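Figure 2 data, in text form.
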Amino acid sequence: MRDDEVAVTPDSAESLFGLLFDGGGEMGDRIRRYDWAKTPLGPIAGWSQAFKTALRLCMASRLPAGIYWGPEHIFLYNNAHSANLGHKHPHALGQPAAIVWPEVFGTIEPLMQRCLLEGKTSGADELPLLLSRPGFMQEVYFSFSYEPLISERGGIEAVYAIIVDASKRVIAERRLRTLQTLGSSDRHPKCPAEALTALAAGYKPGDTDLSWTRATPWRSLLAATLDQEPGTILGGLVSAEEQNPTADLLAAWLCSRLDAPFLRETSGGPGITEVRLSTEAGDIVISRPDGRVATLARPGQPDRHVALQRRDIEELLAEELRRLDPDDIYGESLAAVAGLQEIRV
């Protein structure tokens, strides 16, 4: 038994499960076992009936929900909300909001205070926040409502919160707008490199475009090739149709990753037809003249054929909308396109 857990007597267990935690799942069990006597909220036996009723509704809700009790905003939450907490779960239970959400407390605390001090509902729609995740800050968009929880004595003792994570929809819509912008000849130059440079100027974490998605199989094959330690890459080229932003992004990615110059060469297509990496031992060449199967040629080794089929727009869109986390590598490659234009051939 952990230090913050207490034994439950038969009488208290019957009351707890009957009134509070029916359908509460993991979080219902955690709340039942937590030693609330060590917190400002105090033992469960002293909780108001209004608070218990609200907690039972919270536990049974299919939507992410939580309760912030008292001036310290002691935090209780349901199973659905644990996904929003990420690595903060389950340690967030019973902690003040300032400890649970230090990175956004300055934004949400005034909204909670409005409930506690004025008894007014507050909240926000698609509020942009940066939440701490292991090793990085994640851009999220939360829609939430804060409701004052009034006790039997007429005082406001807590804030009931309903939270909806709108991040996937917001970022997906932004990506679709980016794709529409990239494809609009009225708003962007016809030259793909210039269009990508314009996108770089307005880039935000989470942005992407299908040109980058189309490069994924090429990047995977190149990464696997480089993992075999071919030696220092001195430079290279990417050969593709003239109007091919995927080739521009791929060349920029190689420049950025390998810190070596890469040229953009024009070919008859379809799409990217060749990537060449120059090493002291000779050139590593991946050629795909038919848009379906590539040949990998390396110095001193037999050629190898690799499936590298061009993908249709439906597959690209499905991949983009399935992975909505910010792609820092895309942002770096997009920024590197401007320098690539100077060595374009």
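Caption note: Residues 167-182 form the longest helix (16 residues).
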